[in-house]
Amino acid sequence: MNREDNIHRKPRWMKAPLPKGKNYSVVKQLISEYNLHTICSSGNCPNKGECWSAGTATFMILGNICTRNCSFCYVQTAMPAPADPEEPEKIARVVSILKLKHCVITSVNRDDLPDQGADIWARTIRQVKLVNPGVTMEVLIPDFRGDTDLTDKIINEKPEVISHNLETVRRLTPHIRSRADYDTSLKVLDYISSSGIVAKSGLMLGLGEKVDEIKEAMDDLRKAGVSVLTLGQYLQPSGLHHEVVEYIHPDIFDQLRTIGMEKGFSFVESGPLVRSSYHAERHVLSS
């Protein structure tokens, strides 16, 4: 992997399109009007301009405050406010207004709730499908601390894709993820894939991982039945977060995509600006 001489200066390939057009303004207004959250804003995603300009967004339910303190994540950590019981209806309404054919939903971790937010999750999926017949869905879920009964609440609503991110390689997990475990995530993904629903996961690169470790993580994900993989460049949200150890060249991302496909993934989205929900509509039919 190629290290930039100045790791604090983003290389040319990390430039994202600026927001523009009517769709961007419409999405921004609706998010504000319905008091909703998106990982696009809360996670400081570099693709917000491109996605919102295309009229798409990744909705984030259960608030915008997380009970975990992962060193890579821009989402605020504190004691969250109570969940909004009307959130499922609001999400469904905005999906309808935007006339989305594919909807992506994620959430913060809610370890403070007895069901960790699983009921709101299930009701949101159900309501979006009720109000928007024919819409396809990808849901990016927490690990629910490995509780399969809670994961079943998501599976039973039958979204087309269920995603749960491994985030990084085994060695770095204790330094990068808060209260999350590498093997627990693999078990969650294996449980999802065994249900027959498309299982998807993602890795951030540039945290100090080695190529052999990436390959090992790919093998672990394939053993867990994961068929869709995203690989993207980690970006440090602030000086308080984990540093960027390396900016990975696009050629390396291309090589890793080829390796992933050779290992049996049906779809590998690999590139510096790739994030979990980037071009997610392409992954619906992957299995």
List the topology elements:
Layout: H1 21-33, E1 37-38, H2 39-42, H3 48-53, E2 58-61, E3 65-66, E4 76-77, H4 87-97, E5 102-107, H5 118-131, E6 136-140, H6 148-155, E7 161-163, H7 173-176, H8 182-194, E8 198-205, H9 211-223, E9 228-233, H10 250-262, E10 267-270
Parallel strand pairs: 2-5, 3-4, 5-6, 6-7, 7-8, 8-9, 9-10
Antiparallel strand pairs: 1-2
Keywords summarizing the entry:
eight-stranded mixed β-sheet, 10 helices, alpha/beta
Describe the protein in words:
The chain is globular and about 45 Å long. It is an alpha/beta fold and 287 residues long. It is 34% helix and 15% strand. The strands form 2 sheets. Strands 1-2-5-6-7-8-9-10 form an 8-stranded mixed sheet. Helix 5 packs parallel to helix 6 (148-155). The protein is built from 10 helices and 10 strands. Strand 8 (198-205), helix 9 and strand 9 form a beta-alpha-beta unit. The chain has helices at residues 21-33, 39-42, 48-53, 87-97, 118-131, 148-155, 173-176, 182-194, 211-223, 250-262; strands spanning 37-38, 58-61, 65-66, 76-77, 102-107, 136-140, 161-163, 198-205, 228-233, 267-270. It has a single domain, classed as Alpha-Beta Barrel (TIM Barrel).
